[in-house]
Every structure is written in structure tokens, then in C-alpha cells.
Amino acid sequence: MRSVKLSILLLLATLVAAETLTYQKGSILDIQPKASASAVHKATDAPPPSMQSTYDVTVQIGDMIYVGRYQHASDYVPGNWKVGEPVDARVGQHKHRIYLKDVQGKEVALVIVSRRSADRK
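RESULT FIELD:
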């Protein structure tokens, strides 16, 4: 029984350690608004396009440059996301998203739409 409790404690400690997220200082290279989706040109039963604002945010994290797609219900972009400014950033576990911290320190997920080496121009 004691070894089972010890095993459970060890497992919990491992899970807590695995959830510790490591951020790097990224640098925002560009923020470009994307044109909203065009209206439907024929009668369909599809829902109308969403009214979200969409931006492509280019961020250098380490030796890689990522373009992440940021969407928000209004035209809001976090105040600490400015071209040339540092931002706390990390790449997701499966490398499909980048995560940037906003002005309040909350994590915002952006879907990666492209990536390239910083060495490549």
C-alpha cells in the first residue's frame, strides 16, 4: 500500500513538472490585418461569415520565424504586441500553434500558417 501511494505521488509530481510552460523572448516582426471573407454570392443555407477581425502576426522565436493567425471578435490587438517589441512566446507541443502572452499575461493561441528559418531571407 505504501509503494502505491509513493507511485501516485511520483506520478503527480511528474505531471506537474510536465505542465510547466517555458516561454522565450520572441520579437514581433510584423502585424498585418487580413481582408475579411467575401460575402456569399448565392443563396445557401450556410451561416453568414463571422465578423471577426483577423491578423497575421509574424514573430521570431529563437532561430525560427512564424506567422500566426490571430482572430478577435473586434479589431482589438493586445497593446504589448507592437512591431519591434519583445513578447513572451512559445511553440505548442505539436507545433501547430504559437502562444503569445497579452498585456495581462494571459496566453493567446495563434494557429501557425507558415514558418521558416530566420537565416533564410
